[in-house]
Amino acid sequence: MPLFFGRLPLEKLNATREQLEKKTLAEALTPRQIVEELDKYIIGQFEAKRSVAIALRNRARRQMLAEDMQDEVAPKNIIMIGSTGVGKTEIARRLARLVDAPFIKVEASKYTEIGYVGRDVESMIRDLTEIAISRVKAEQTEAVEEKARESTEERLLDALFPMPRSLQQSLRLRSESTDDTETEEDDDVLQLPFDLGTDAETEEEEAKERERVRYFKTREKFRTWLQEGKLEEKPVEISVKHQNMPFVEIFSPGGIEEMDINFKDMFGSILPNQTKKRRLPVSEARKILMQEESDKLIDMDAVISEAIARVENSGIVFLDEIDKIAGRESRQGPDVSREGVQRDILPIIEGSTVASKYGSVRTHHILFIAAGAFHVSSPSDLIPELQGRFPIRVELKSLNKADFKSILTEPKNALVKQYTALLSTEGIEATITEDAIDEIASLAFQVNESVEDIGARRLHTIMEKLFENLFFDAPDIEQTDVTIDADYVKSELAEIVKDQDLSRYIL
């Protein structure tokens, strides 16, 4: 996404957005490229990667259609079926990161039917909008960083070396006299044949001029020290805006909603902006002033407009634990956490307009990726209307020993790389042998089979237990090279794995 510099008018922002929407397919990632990028972080699950890659590519294809047809092409929502730890969430999260799309992960089980106390289903769209606004604001903050830094530097200099009042007054009077009167030409002044000498007023002006020169010369010296970092710990007193963030919980038919109410905007001049003085080191004062100066340069109307456009056209909602609300009325009657929630979610997925404090947000082209283990229920237990809104269903396979080995070593930031990097901070170079990796993968697969299948998350528990003693002793041992082989793995974990009751709690 492009960065917007300074205060960008809304018409220019809309023009830029139209250019983005009309970009050629050649500029978007192909499905094959998307899968290749996902392969860097996620092992296996080719069918799931293929499905999300096609769904993402179809967004670029839709933008190439005629405007009247764009609204007719609905996103192809996806249901991922698979046990925990097989990569469902990671696929969705990496996909959103890949295209810098607004993304939110929510659990379907935390919502309740309208009329009951709990989270309203529309809050997921409001939360997604908040995320998008934060991201766009961060981009614009980066864009205006240079101007904000210059303004911050001037404010710090004013605080470190304020201008004397006498000099401020003389400069103000000089400015007023220059604006009000015109200087006379030298030819119009009577030339006297003798020298009258300097009067008191002239001497005073010359003294003020010398003071002004000394002040600005010293100020530039302070500027140099400030830029060189010599004043970072020097305390400075600054005036900052006193911001109250009132937090109100609204009890409504839709449940408890959290809202920020800006009373200053509501009451106008009755509650004027307040400032308070704070004494801080220059290093901390700079951060506060940088934020204030950046906020002055950012056009929040443009930020909100851009954020809502991103949510509507490229937002991704990952709806986890959808199997927990897969209940049918014919079993035990309507359930506030099951069928009622399905019926409330349905309009959002079908396409509706959600009201937020930033304006209306249309959900017609948001991509919904649902996921669940479906051990007890099945996708066919969802209400028919909701099933129809998820035309793509893909089953993720359980991980085997070979998958665990690949997860340990192949991803960009694989677990083996993470743990050796952590030890290297203590000056210890750890080497994990091939047979150790094979043994770790075998143990993870064995425990998943005998206790409960939690997928790749089992590797985290095993690796943490395996490195527990090393992490504890690392600051105190003098040894700089450590080799972790299969025998070391067995000695650390064999007893736990052997005792089924113990492994149920430890691993």
Describe this structure in words.
With 507 residues, the protein is of the alpha/beta class. The chain folds into 3 domains: 10-138 and 300-395, 3-Layer(aba) Sandwich (Rossmann fold); 145-163 and 203-297, no CATH class; 401-506, Helicase, Ruva Protein, domain 3. Helix content is 52%, strand content 13%. The chain contains 22 helices and 13 strands. The chain has helices spanning 10-21, 31-39, 46-63, 67-70, 88-99, 123-143, 145-160, 165-180, 200-227, 263-267, 282-297, 300-314, 329-332, 339-350, 384-388, 401-409, 415-424, 434-450, 457-466, 468-473, 486-498, 500-506, and strands at 78-81, 103-107, 235-241, 247-252, 255-260, 275-281, 316-320, 353-356, 359-362, 367-372, 392-395, 429-432, 481-484. The strands form 5 sheets. Strands 2-7-10-1-11 form a 5-stranded parallel β-sheet, sandwiched between helices. The protein has a two-stranded antiparallel ribbon with strand order 3-6. Helix 6 crosses helix 12 and helix 7 (145-160) crosses helix 11 (282-297). The chain is flat and about 100 Å long. The two termini are 43 Å apart. Residues 1-13, 15-23, 181-187 and 245-264 have low confidence and may be disordered.
Helical coverage, percent range: 40-55%
CATH C-level name of the largest domain: Alpha Beta
Can you name the CATH architecture of the largest domain?
A: 3-Layer(aba) Sandwich
**Distance N terminus to C terminus?**
43 Å
Uncertain spans, ≥5 residues at pLDDT below 50?
Answer: 1-13, 15-23, 181-187, 245-264
- What's the alpha carbon Rg, rounded to whole Å? 32 Å
Helical run tally: 22
What share of the residues does DSSP label as strand, in percent?
A: 5-15%
Shape: flat
Give the overall pLDDT as a whole number. Answer: 79
Biggest β-sheet: strands ordered side by side in the sheet: 2-7-10-1-11
Number of domains: 3
User: Care to count the β-strands?
Assistant: 13
